[in-house]
Amino acid sequence: MRRPLLSALALTSASVLLTGCFAAAPDGGGTARGQDGRVRVAMMNPPRSGLSPLSDDAFKLSRWSTAETLVVLDAEGDARPALATSWKQHGTSWTFTLRDGVTFHDGTPLTARDVERSLTRAATASPKPRILDGVRLGVRASGRTVTLTTAAPDPLLPQRLSSPQLSVLSARAYRGKTVDPVGTGTGAFRLTRVDGTTSASLDRYDGYWGGRAKAAGIDVTFVPDGTARAAALRTGEADIVEAVPVSQAALLDQDLVTEVPMPRTNTLYLNTRKGPFRDPALRAAARRAIDARPLVEGVYEGRADLAEGLLGPAVTWADGLRPTRTPAPAGDPDGAVITIGTFTDRAELPEVAQALQQQLRAAGFTVRLDVREYAAIEADALAGAFDAFLLSRATVLDSGDPAAYLFSDFSSEGSFNLSQLADPGVDAALRKAADAPAGDTRRRAVMAAEAAVLATDAAVPLLHERVVQGDAAGVVGAAHDPRERLLVTPDTYVK
Predict the structure, then answer these.
(1) Is the pTM of this model over 0.85?
(2) pLDDT tens, 208-263?
(3) Alpha carbons 304 and 157: distance in angstroms, whole number
(4) Domain shared by 228 and 155, yes or no
(5) Where is the Solute-binding protein family domain (predicted)?
């Protein structure tokens, strides 16, 4: 009962602050009531890089349907046409044919040279968009086609190009030292105004190649406080609220709350290089001692999915291809001392860590916790300073493909190998998955790689998080996207 009571008090306090958060902008483009046909959106994270598409801010541009990429991903993670209508591979090169009739928000037509400029700027940026980590990309325009060349054959290149960080903008966006997305996209809504980290406004772009949007525009307010975002929905100050905290969702009208499985898994990574968990039998003992059901029902109040593996229900094909595995025999902890690290940035993780501490103590381990902000703990985690590390991790990354996540986290060459795993069998399975062609062959190889990782007990998957989104009663057609790339689409409007 403690959490709902405290949440209700916080929600009341947050409501007092909403008038200031949702005040109209000086030019009339704010989020106040009375603007017919516009959609008011409360978003969690303010821009960090001036809405540059070369940063994580690119996902905001995608969620507002203002900047677009050559391809998009379908529910299975396969590439589908967007600004490009077709593509073909020739060894280390892929040639993309552009869609006719596309114009930028400044009125200029989309050309192959525009695509070359945007993708070259991304490929030579410092730092690069993460989807291009380790990729040497050459871009050459010719007529209505663009040819992209990599150092080695890349079966995943079309999926990579779906990343919002590889959006195509007009020449005007690149006149300064930073990339400016205001009025330079190709989407259904034209970005007209950005007020620092406070708000943004977009108007319908009537020249959109995909047809006229149903809403007249979008008014965005950035509200980092989750209680305030939930209150914005409850008080009618916002039409769409992203990332409603689990602790607040139960306090809202449940008809206004939508939950969608997302490709994000809470996993306990066990240090296989040093400390007690060098012993596979003790890793097996930890895995056997952990019961994630109380975490799902208690900490996440039923708004999460119990993990059967590293890949959850948001990866729609994973469960049907997952092989049966036989658990390794467990040893006796006999008081072995372990330290679990985690961070406070995701509110539920410290509570999950406390529950795991109790379960592992009951199994015979001596357990200490080290909880800090993520910025203060990441370096130690990557260096293997903890016996175990609790992390909420996206499992398909920007390409929509789990192979990149598995390689990053569990390969002996992986850049995010918290388990310090160096297993020849796992490495071989990961290489096979990374090299497999897109489609069923790649999916089966990915699931074989997952099985190889889980057989080592280097990671104990706990649960899969869900996107919890609030839509007011009059909202029609808002996207509920597990990859969090779409939110307001051309079909979204408020009655």
Answers:
(1) no
(2) 999 999 999 999 999 988 899 999 999 999 999 998 988 899 899 999 999 999 99
(3) 32
(4) no
(5) 80-414
